[in-house]
User: What shape does this take?
Amino acid sequence: MDLVRSTVCPYCYNKFPNSKIIWRCSSGSCKRPENLEEDGKYSEYHDVHGAAARRMPHIITAGKPKNGFVQCDKCGEFTNVAICPECHSILPKTDENIIISIIGAPSAGKSYFVGTLLKQLNEKLSAFSCGMQFTTTESREMYENKFERNFERGVPVPATKPPAENMNIVGANLPILCDLTDRHLKKRTFTFFDAAGENFENEGIMRYVAPYISHSSAIILLLDPTQIPYVNNALAEENPRMRLRDPKDSVSYESILTNTISVIHQHTRSSGRIKIPLAVGFSKWDLIENSPLLRPDENSAILRPSPHFSQGFRKIDCQNVSLEIEGLLAAWGCQNFTVRVKQSFTKVNFFAFSAIGASADERGNVPIVVPKRVEDPFLWLLNELGMIVK
Ligand SMILES: Nc1nc2c(ncn2[C@@H]2O[C@H](COP(=O)(O)OP(=O)(O)OP(=O)(O)O)[C@@H](O)[C@H]2O)c(=O)[nH]1
Ligand SMILES: [Mg+2]
Ligand SMILES: [Zn+2]
Ligand SMILES: [Zn+2]
Assistant: This one.
């Protein structure tokens, strides 16, 4: 690692010069139970309890790296395990660290989005001659426990837990890290941070997530169409038994957008249009497609399956979908929202997707997950960041 460059930790989002990086010994000797040492910082961030679990191998704070390795001042062996000076998490060995922030009201569909997106990337990213791997065993296990197992069993993914007061928000909900290796073998680590919707409800709480939003390479703002009064009324009229949220009960789109903009401005001490690319994605699109009152025109691009994995990235499809969604938003009385988004961010595209493909049944069982267009916002962002081309 280069000494002048800086790193953003993908766990605590602190930014520090690479010269501040510290190291964890990985030798057999330092890993022996009797040689482990209490690591309070790591345990606090990762929410680790129990005296034994909090004990970890020795940390080398004054190492001078040579070819990526430093010598342990306790056992004399060499290690290349770089860790964050603030939270002691292992820093990924990567060419670039990319944070993707997923923002949205409680129950907007953020967790299903992340879970089904990772599933699609895992299965289909080879179409772009890219490989995907979870960065750490911890990330792979989180994906398997939180998503894969529940998808297979038709069990709902639990609501994401908001952090207890004063607890660090990342520790309460560790991000999932995965490495994407492109055709030139360049490896980039993506951090998907799927916070609880409660974190975005007001500006005061949102300041806890400010560092991760402000350090993001891209933001995905997820909106639940049933939060739009026009949509909510139409669905209720068609199917009075459908369980729908009361749009008045949850934080509005406009507030989430306003909070996001002001948090970024404050944290980056800037004003004006924000240069971080923003994908605005409408979730649960199956509800719209299945509604005679709301279903778009039959020749709409949005009704067709996503073309990107089968035909290569199609920017024109993203643009067509975006225009169609803008048209629907205008018809549903949300023009002001669209204008505000475009005035506040320099790069914006509107999307719609269905993560599950259908609603859970009345007993709460989730059908087999058949995602539609869930990959579109992420592939658009990869294109905006110059990682995949047409
Ligand atoms: N019809 C339909 N329902 C969906 C879809 N995706 C998610 N849902 C439902 O929306 C609800 C909330 O989904 P989550 O992904 O847990 O929402 P979240 O934004 O992570 O919520 P918090 O973690 O509480 O902030 C679940 O009950 C899902 O059944 C979809 O594609 N279609
Ligand atoms: Mg969630
Ligand atoms: Zn850290
Ligand atoms: Zn050692």
Observations:
- The chain has 14 helices and 16 strands.
- Residues 6-83 form one domain.
- The longest helix spans residues 137-153.
- Residues 110-111, 159-160, 194 surround magnesium ion (ligand 2) (CB under 6 Å).
